Amino acid sequence: MVGDCRWLTFSNGPAFTEVPLAVETEVSGERQPRDDICTRLIAGSAGIVPYMGHDDVTHLHGMHVVHSGPRQAPPLVLIHGSGFSGGSWSPVVPALADQYHVIRVDLPGHGQSSPAPSYDVPEQVGRLAAVLDELGLRPVAVVGHSSGGYIATALAEQRPDLVGSLALISSGPSPDAFLPQPVLGDR
Prior knowledge:
CATH architecture of the domain at 50-173: 3-Layer(aba) Sandwich
Pfam families: Abhydrolase_1 (PF00561)
Domain AB hydrolase-1: 74-180
Protein name: AB hydrolase-1 domain-containing protein
CATH topology of the domain at 50-173: Rossmann fold
Organism: Streptomyces sannanensis
InterPro entries: AB_hydrolase_1, AB_hydrolase_fold, AB_hydrolase_sf
Strand order of the largest sheet: 5-6-8-7-9-10
């Protein structure tokens, strides 16, 4: 339910998976928000506390990579937008890491990743694909936020063998995807 933030829904190929954002407490038996995540998601960035329950942190191909959740679970890759880092996904990781192997990356020049000689989308996709190849993960569900959606979309286009499903948040097509429109006076 979107309005009251009870579930987060992800596409996993043709099926959808619902992740509960509320759990029953042992004391009262009432449903309470898990780690107050609903309040933090609805309220925005105020009160967001970084998720510190990660399993593993590595650096691969110049990118900072954080793994959360069981490694044998379905892989879910979270890609941040410009000016952010993988840490921007921290508020939703607790709800996801119970059922997914969550992989957060810091794109080159962001967070704890090294600067790169080029920030072109194909270059970033190549680095991310190399990370996923080295980790042996495929197919993965990919979520891209803002300009991270450009990376996610390009990854699905360039390496369809890696991507099983794709979700874009506050993202649109790359500006070069728009077709030129005729001027109204040119007929």
